[in-house]
Amino acid sequence: MFTGIVQDMGTVVEREERGGDLHLVIAFAQLDETRLGVGDSVCVQGCCLTVAARAGATFSADLSRETLSLTTLGELEIGAPVNLEPALRAGDVLGGHLVSGHVDAIARITSVESDARSRRLTVAVPTDLMRYIARKGSVTLDGVSLTVNEVAGASFGVNIIPHTQDVTTLGALAAGASVNLEVDQLARYVERLLRPPA
Question: What share of the chain in percent tops pLDDT 70?
Fold first, then answer.
């Protein structure tokens, strides 16, 4: 479990295809190394991965074909920046919202506009997920917890404030970019509870 509050921007330093899977090595600068032991969960671009090995200020993770088919992680090249967050511990501050790291879909940025010092993004989403996205609700893009500004058809808008632009990969997004989307899991549970039994 995560919060969507990015704690470091890491860098992909090695990439190796292994029989259809992908092995990544990611360098970090600010993460607490005690929270990155072998077997620990870490959120990389919104996707929960398992630390497979550690060496200095790097960790490695293996990505299955399932992960590669549902996320943008297969597109990462050496040198690519990535948003990082270690798993939430009991007693940690919940600054964003509860994030599982289980990506629901790949969404697409359809426009980026200036809004004072913020950047306003419009995000196109698969239509079957739009029922989970509500104005002033929470959503996660590439591991970053954001507040939805408006919802229209099969898209929604968010603002990226200057701090978030500086400390995450969202500051460099342009129209046409693909992002990992996780909807608010509370919306999924509410829907399940309200659905008549089968």
Answer: 99
Each residue's pLDDT tens digit, 81-119: 999 999 988 888 888 888 999 999 999 999 999 999 999
Give the three-class secondary structure for 170: helix
* Token pair listed for 24: 């990544």
Helical spans, DSSP H, in the chain = 65-70, 162-167, 185-194
Whole-structure pTM over 0.90, yes or no? yes
Locate 141 and state its tokens. 């893009």
38 vs 100: CA distance, rounded Å:
19
Instruction: State the amino acid at position 110 in one-letter form.
Output: T
At 1, the amino acid letter reads M
CA 16 to chain centre: 22
Please report the sign of the dihedral spanned by the C-alpha atoms of residue 65, residue 67, residue 71, residue 77: negative
Structure tokens at 172: 């460099």
